[in-house]
Fold these 2 entries.
Entry 1:
Amino acid sequence: MFVILVYDTAAERNPTVLMTCRRYLHRTQRSVFQGELTAAQYRELTSALSTAIDPEYDSIVTYTARSPGMIDSTTIGVHLGGPGDIL
Amino acid sequence: MFVILVYDTAAERNPTVLMTCRRYLHRTQRSVFQGELTAAQYRELTSALSTAIDPEYDSIVTYTARSPGMIDSTTIGVHLGGPGDIL
């Protein structure tokens, strides 16, 4: 599945969230990641994030589609990342 | 079409970007909007944003799909907004 992930977390938890997201996705904007995952990888990622954040304060939204071909992406202004940025 | 819009703009331009996005979409996270637009509305929105931002510094990414049914959305933690937040 194709996954877009947007996070809005407290500064002290950002490094953990970033590190977790980078294991699965590539970064396309300061707080946005995207990539293709299996259903199992997606569950691993969301499970890891659930334990990393404070659910009373932080927010992570994922958008998923069955394939990347179902979603078009357009950047206005600075293009901050792409598939080449996978770490 | 269904539109997800994520912005990362300088603080001084945030109010203009916010106001422009709110005319067309509803906010789902601090810097994320979503909603259904016609192709004409989408062009109006991206055109207005193109003139509002500094393309050397700011970044706006849109993800579009033909219908909202093609994308699933999941929130972990705080749910910051929804269709009820349309202003």
Entry 2:
Amino acid sequence: MRTAYHEQLESLTTQLGDMCGLAGTAMERATQALLQADLALAEQVITDHEQISAMSVRAEETAFVLLALQAPVAGDLRAIVSSIQIVADVDRMGALALHVAKIARRRHPQHALPEEVNGYFAEMGRVAVELGQSAREVLLTRDPEKAARIRDEDDAMDDLHRHLFSVLMDREWRHGVAAAVDVTLLGRFYERFADHAVEIARRVIFQVTGHAPEEEGLPLSR
Amino acid sequence: MRTAYHEQLESLTTQLGDMCGLAGTAMERATQALLQADLALAEQVITDHEQISAMSVRAEETAFVLLALQAPVAGDLRAIVSSIQIVADVDRMGALALHVAKIARRRHPQHALPEEVNGYFAEMGRVAVELGQSAREVLLTRDPEKAARIRDEDDAMDDLHRHLFSVLMDREWRHGVAAAVDVTLLGRFYERFADHAVEIARRVIFQVTGHAPEEEGLPLSR
């Protein structure tokens, strides 16, 4: 009985890890759709989002059944409670990728982005995939060193975001207000995507060590 | 034993309701700080945020203890799992009020907002307080009709947000890109605040009726 239970708990973790991977892939594709003004790819991200939503519902249900049937205690209980919270974070990561894809679709056949900022978004898309992969690894390995890597990736995202804003705020910005609004929102979506990955790592590490990771140098997501 | 347990569960709901009220008040004050360029008020919102964070930690801990000590089943278990998810939503509402206050502080002694959009933000601030109050009432009464009121308030927020964007996108916008960036982010913060209130109502109603409220006309937060 205990063994079947731990198998289920492990399967829940695998589900969450898979969702992180999918969210990263969604953000990668949404970024491509944005950069290439690729309508078909934007549509694909929008359609594929159903899958992440369905997996969220399934993961919540798995966690609920584990609580209901097994009445777990101590560490196991903490793991399941964390899982319920992590579902919300990774679900949101998927929704943020969806938002990016929707802006790409709304602006099609135009490019949403002025060419000047393409490089920033290409890089933010690359970091987003890494964050999805790293969150997955942290979930599967519960390794604090891997969690520290997420901190570095989040720092990279913050730097990109800050530079992007300095480009926007520059008096030389000559792409008008509408493009500035899109770039502001898009930048925010990538930043929040990273925040949620950090939050997932924070929850896993808290669960493993009993300390909030910010005490161990991993900043709290805000 | 069962009675003490239900008292604890009720106290958890009260905690969540109080947090919703505080988040609404925080957004009201942050809005005032923004409109009046009132640094002291902005600082107060920033300081008071600690209280919401501390209450989040406490509410999560209460929920955890209830799960650990009581091994609840069925409806009670669902109520506690929802509570854990609701903590995350209301915590985020507080963080969004904090973000508004921080923009007011960053721009002080300037006003962050061009006078032209003050009216929109005054109104969004008013709706935010109502949303905090309504979320509190939905939590305490579990009344689907009160949940429907949140839908109306969210619609009002969406309308304000849409109008705000049409002002921004207008060729007549003459406040420059920096102000447009602030207005974009601020508008997004109010919109997300409303989304989280809707999500709280959705969770409460799902728990009461077993149906997602969108099946009953309450739109899913996105």
